From TrEMBL:
<dbReference type="InterPro" id="IPR001370">
    <property type="entry name" value="BIR_rpt"/>
</dbReference>
<dbReference type="Pfam" id="PF00653">
    <property type="entry name" value="BIR"/>
</dbReference>
<dbReference type="InterPro" id="IPR050784">
    <property type="entry name" value="IAP"/>
</dbReference>
<dbReference type="GO" id="GO:0005634">
    <property type="term" value="C:nucleus"/>
</dbReference>
<protein>
    <recommendedName>
        <fullName>Death-associated inhibitor of apoptosis 1-like</fullName>
    </recommendedName>
</protein>
<dbReference type="GO" id="GO:0005737">
    <property type="term" value="C:cytoplasm"/>
</dbReference>
């Protein structure tokens, strides 16, 4: 086990928390306060309100647009297979809420998976014209 690596990650996390200790929208700090924002949301969304609220998101009142109460990140146009924690980490890997709940390793894994998936997608989509 590399204790130095974990020590560095922990120090980095503590430093990030100290610098960004105040949420953008503190009135939505509790899960229930975030969940209540989904009362007016259309039930035809791909993502369930419990998962979104658990990930720090509040409903904005427009389409499927949600906002992180902590970092202010706005996300919308959700697709069926989108995983809220991963999307949050991918679009704002410095969000303290994600760092505290999921940790640095989760964020690194999400970024690496995204890079790997894009590499596979781009290699599959390459096509070549042939001239006979």
């Amino acid at each position: 086990m590399n204790l130095l690596k974990y020590s560095t990650d922990f120090q980095s996390l503590v430093h990030s928390v100290e610098e960004n200790s105040d949420p953008e929208y503190p009135m939505y700090s509790s899960f229930l306060s975030r969940l209540k924002t989904y009362d007016s949301r259309s039930p035809q969304s791909y993502q369930d309100k419990y998962s979104l609220a658990q990930c720090g998101f509040t409903y904005t009142g427009t389409d499927d647009l949600v906002q992180c109460y902590y970092c202010g990140l706005l996300l919308g146009k959700w697709e069926k297979n989108d995983e809220p924690w991963s999307q949050h980490a991918l679009h704002n890997p410095k969000c303290i809420f994600i760092l505290l709940y999921k940790g640095v390793q989760f964020i690194e894994n999400v970024k690496n998976e995204y890079i790997d998936n894009n590499r596979v997608s781009s290699s599959k989509s390459e096509s070549y014209d042939t001239i006979d």
